[in-house]
Amino acid sequence: MAKTGESYTTARNHVLGQEETHTDAGWRFAGGRHPSSAAITAVLVNQGVSLSEPLVFLTGGGIGAGYILWEFKHDQSRHVTLGFRNQWQYHDRWMAKTLGRLGVPYEEHHTAGVRAAGDRLAAELDAGRPCVILPDRYHLGYWQLPAALDGHGGGPVVAYRRDESGVYLDDRGQAPIRIPRERLDAARARVPSYKNVMHVLGDAKPDEAALADAAREGLRDCAAHLSAASDSFSLPAWRKWARLLTDTRNAKAWPKVFADGRGLADALLSVWEGAEPVGMDGGNLRALFADALDEAAALLAEPELAGLAGRYREISALWHGLAEAALPAEVPEFARVRELTAAIKEGVMADGSAAGEEAAENGRLLWQARAAANESLTATDTAALFADLSAYLGTIYEAERAAIAHLGVVTR
Known about the structure:
Domain Butirosin biosynthesis protein H N-terminal: 34-171
Distance between the termini: 39 Å
CATH topology: Cathepsin B, Chain A
Organism: Nonomuraea turkmeniaca
Shape: globular
Domain DUF4872: 194-344
Strand content: 5-15%
Number of domains: 1
Radius of gyration: 21 Å
Order of helices and strands: HEEHHEEHEHEHEEEHEHHHHHHHHH
Largest sheet: 6 strands, antiparallel
Structural class: alpha+beta
Pfam families: BtrH_N, DUF4872
CATH superfamily: Cysteine proteinases
Number of strands: 10
Protein name: DUF4872 domain-containing protein
């Protein structure tokens, strides 16, 4: 994972072969690559629905695009947020359209009070209904984030059972993650824009015709969304970012923002984490989309979609090239950060709560290593690096623009 940026499941399969199925108190861990699509898939699989994560991901509109450079005064850090899923900034909207297209009945709750939200979740779990929730990752604890990231949000997870004082989560791994109720309640209430949000999915048995319709709607949604002119939430975001990497006038241009070198390693690491599957959110998702296109090609009898799948695997490789350029393993400080990032992800995926003290120690070492990397880059000449990243992004933008235009023709 550290060397290749691959997801836990992919890397593990290289070593041990096909992933085996793990369970906890009757709950089957389905794994997964992206938090949103994996959460829905996990609930439906445990209802007995035969459905893949790529098809769920496609139903929601597939891939997206988005770029934000954050500058935080409280700890003098800089971070890059990359959006790779359709409507990545709108959890509720994405859930609504995905579940609606799949024909899955659901209830959406935004309980105001912390205690009332916890009681509602407990009642649903006691009734045997797993829930998709959206807690703050810092408060969950198992991702080993520092206090500076308190309130920065997170991805959906499935709460599938509880005991007297804790709730068990499925976060795409193969082992249970038990969170004390008070901590989970605080995590769910931390981010005001989606405070205490919870989706309770009803039973659904979509047939092949319904899945074909859902896939077709998702493809058209993807083509329309990424053909838009927005340079914040559509493909022009990559072109905008490419320009900001070499611009010398814009206040958010990288040569200006990083003129003092401060926080550069954090920003580069967030690019690597955002683009590679080893990160917390599943990476650039182009390979997941390619798998979805292969399924849709058979489901819709559209062989051109299989050809597009190959193109998106090539685009995924371009993103890998960008990530490697941003955080090359040849730099010792970067190699150490990569290794520890992968170790934490592996602990979450393989061991869940059982990662315990080892995970906490890896977290301590990671943030120590990140601080050292930031310090080592303060005097770096960034012009060549930023020009290199800009060139990668220019190539990616043109490749994605051509691919989405082709998709628009196929789905017209």
